[in-house]
Each structure stands twice: as C-alpha cells, then as structure tokens.
Amino acid sequence: MKEVTLYSQPECPPCEVVKMFLKEHNVNYKEINIKKDEQARNYLINQLNSYSTPTVTIDSEVISGFNLEALSAALNK
C-alpha cells in the first residue's frame, strides 16, 4: 500500500477536489494543513520544492498543484 500525504490549506477549491478524488478511489491519505503547521509548510517549500497546494506525495513521488492525471497515474487508478 502506498503512503499518500496531501498538503492543503483552507479555502482551496483544488484541494477539495483532490480530497474527493482520493475518497472516490478509496485511497487512505494523511492531510496536513500548511496554514496550521508551519514546520510542514517549510518542508513543503524546502524539501519538496513546492509552493502551491494541493501538493500530494505518494511514497517518494511529489505531485505539485492540481493534476488529477498525474495523481491517477501515480496511484495506478
């Protein structure tokens, strides 16, 4: 089973779409709100080289921004 983490923030419509996509495909994921977790925000920027939400990590793969095609391919859905 792949480890999936969603980095999101409030009032982010693309984040909501990604959450719906993950739920529809029965994907277990951990959600991290970068507005509430400054350490996670710094990790997103400095380690994942991403400056936008949603950003999804699937094992070691990083999908920055809203890209359902890449998400689907990474999850083999």
Describe the model.
The chain has 77 residues and is α+β, with helices and mostly antiparallel strands. The chain has one domain: 3-Layer(aba) Sandwich (Glutaredoxin), CATH 3.40.30.10. It is built from 3 helices and 4 strands, in the order βαβαββα. A 4-stranded mixed beta sheet has the order 2-1-3-4, with helices on both faces. A hairpin with a 2-residue loop joins strand 3 and strand 4. The longest helix is centred in the first third of the chain and has 12 residues, at 13-24. The protein is globular, with a radius of gyration of 11 Å. The two termini are 13 Å apart. The mean pLDDT is 96.
Q: What are the defining features of this structure?
A:
single chain; 77 residues; alpha+beta; Glutaredoxin; 3 helices; globular
